[in-house]
Amino acid sequence: MCRRHRKINLVFLFLVLFFCVPGRSDATHGGSVVISSSSIPKSFNPVVAKETSTTFITGFIFEGLTATDGITQQVKPNLAISWNIDSTGKIWTFYLRKDVYWNDGIQFTARDVKFTFDRLIFNPDIPTSSRDVLSIDGKPIKVEVVEKFAVRFYLPERFAPFLRLMGQEILPEHKYKQIVDRKAFSFSMGLDSKPEDIVGTGPFMLEDFRPGEWVILKKNKRYWKKDSQGNSLPYIDRIIILTIPDQNLALLKFKKGELDMISLRPQDYLLLMKDKPADVKIFNVGPSLGSEFLVFNQNLDSSIAEYKKQWFRNVKFRWAVSCAIDRQTIIDNIFAGLGHPLYGPVNESVPEFYNNRIRKFHYDLRKAEMYLAEAGFKKGSDGLLYDRDGNQVSFSLITNSNNSQRIEQANLIRTDLEKLGMKVNFLPVDFNSLVTRINSTRDWEAVLLGLTGSVDPHFGKNVWVTSGHLHLWNPGSPSSVYSWEKEIDSIFQQAAMIFEPEKRKQLYDRWQEVFCENQPMIFTATSDVIYAVKDKFGNLKPTVYGGLFHNIEEIYILPIESGSSKARKKIGK
Amino acid sequence: MKKLVLKRLLQLIPMLIGMSFVSFIIIQSSPGDYFAQMKMNPEISPETIESMKVNFGLDRPILVQYLLWLKNMCKLDFGVSFAYHIPVRTLIKFRLKNTICLAIFSLVISWVIALPLAVFAGYREGTFIDKIFSMLAYLSISLPSFFVALLFVYFISKTNLLPLGGTRSIFEVDASSFALFKDYMEHLLVPGLVLCLVNVGGLFRLMKNNFIETFNTPYVLAAWARGVPRNSVIFKHALRNALNPMFTILGMEIGGILNGAALTEIICGWPGMGSLILEAVLSHDLYLVMGSLVISGFLLIVGNLIGDILIAFFDPRIRIS
After folding, report:
1. Which of A96, A553, B54, B224 has its CA 20 to 30 A from that of B22?
2. A42, A436, A439 member nearest B84 (Cβ)
3. Where in chain B are the domains?
4. Residues of chain B with C-beta less than 8 angstroms from the C-beta of A256
5. How close B151 comes to chain A (CA, Å)?
6. φ, ψ dihedrals at B202, nearest 5°
7. ipTM, 2 decimals?
8. A225 has pLDDT over 80
9. Cβ–Cβ under 8 Å, residues A337 and A419
10. Superfamily classification of domain B94-286+296-320
11. CATH for A291-526, among 3.10.105.10, 3.30.70.640, 3.40.50.300, 3.40.30.10?
């Protein structure tokens, strides 16, 4: 591929070499990796289908102009070599690599980028949530081809998260233009496709699949990344992804040696450690990005009793509840000790934005009782808690019935709060009913839920700002809004427009401080991310954000020592 | 006979309409919809969800939606799955083959085991060996299918005799078709044997009772007395008549293919219609559920029809009337 360059641009060369993977003298080409996915991949269309089961697979096939490094979580160049921003901060120009080819042989150019944005993401006929994430205040981004390998974006506002969002998968114009013209794109690239229908620039391409059973990816021989010795990447020939919905079955298969890698739930970890095969390595990479939390309904317009609204809106009541929850017991019982307590909306797995100086309500029953006393609550002679008007403190707690861990957690919380004299009526509710109650009818008192997390706080904006559709404790009602919520609204608005990382961090630090001081969501705990891997791979660098495969192109299978009795794939196919 | 077949096929239509209408209303009336999971995602706006709903036609009144679906059904267009974004027909096609293979396998094996054993035991009624078989049959009847499945899966996992889950373990591109076939059959054995174990007992008992009853009829006694050879008495005179009621059962079993195998499929990890329907119902994937239900109803009627044809074929009395 390098022979096609007309000019040898030293800067270009430096950048190419800098971002190449360092070569390994013992790195061997060849081999397969067998892994499992618990959910059935629903499609191969990265624009339309956004569930993890799909993005797990499309992540190997498609790439964006930038990529988020799996280890440092920094944004790094990918299909784009460099970029610049004009003085207004609204016009971004990206300079693209000239050595990238789609896996069907056609060269990747700026036209493909324009096509992806204009005809796919911002196409009103195609329902995609990418549009929401890439629209700023509801306004779309204008894209222009400057040269064959340069593309310019006109943003309606300054938008700092834009660079990270350029991890958005790019699709080829030559392959999909006609399908889009026929208005059939939403239903294309599905499980009824042929492998040659899925065209991307990534390290792997589709070889074969049977829906609900397996997907086989094979190495993309035209992949542009090379290691520092000029060898083509990826090293591995094939990835075989088996669909195993039952996690217990997956663990069984891993133990038998049918799977090479598996992600472990706490109970799986304990089972595996009991009779761990000798050639298995365990990686505990830290607390997951997800969170679990308790929310009280603080909306003045909701249909719950007025006096209950007064309890939930009293910050000392919420402080007391936060102090009374024994997070360590939750971790020990539900995550088998393999978890971390959570006190705020960002956890230490995102060091770029984590603020460790937030107010943490550690487990302290006496402090909890003190806060309740300050708020006018008193324990009666029957041991039950009453507010200053004599109403008994009793409320209902709901959570989704299809999550057994959350149900266990809710029971533990109920027991904790009963020590304060509160009566908690816990009710597991079907997930669909739960969503209806929270989003539409809004008749709930307390709810235990979880969210997945992201690196940039801006992507969770709809939870934190008053106008967001997931602002659970106080949705949409201007009369209920607190002044601190208004401060958070302004923080999110400003921080999105500031490019300097230190200034952004300052703002988001303040957000976390304000948030934790007022406890609208009382965070409990999160489990650790644990992987078990057969000890036959080199360059494996798992992280919480990147998982096992963020650097899939540089992972290789270690050469077998001579005399090994296990038969493996031949090297250098 | 032709009139019978025609009449049955015509009966299909009102039955399917009634069944689908009731199911449609029930699913739509239950709280929540397919988009519940998406509503809890901070990155997806309510406007996008609304536009998805319009895309799938879910913003129209329920009756209108049903009639549109019915109209498409007449063209054999089962609609599109919300989760998979592809036609329901494609999804069902993939899974149906697996379920049918499983059903045929377990049907054939359980009948091939149960019937000869039943004749054998029936002929030796009251002996020790008959008592053993009857006891085993009772065991088979009383154990629920999911329990047997769980036990079997546990047993296989400890002994590593057979592969568990999925339909294939060989992923080499150059594998021979014989090797692929063998691989598929190995994977089929676990759920197949579970279903056999569960069904064999009931079949055995029924067949044995039929056989004994037939064997004690006057005409069989007469044949015996006339000196007809023993094997002829058993197989030509007694068995052929004893088999009669079994054809009705066969028809019912073919019809019940989808339902019977669902739990077993899910526990053993066999990718068939059972797990497809379960997932579709749990996620409110409307058209996938409806499509699966229609196929299920169709197979039920066709199965019973096959049973009736078989009876007519074997029993001249019915044919003439």
Report:
1. B54
2. A42
3. 94-286+296-320
4. 157, 160
5. 14
6. -60, -45
7. 0.73
8. yes
9. no
10. MetI-like (1.10.3720.10)
11. 3.10.105.10
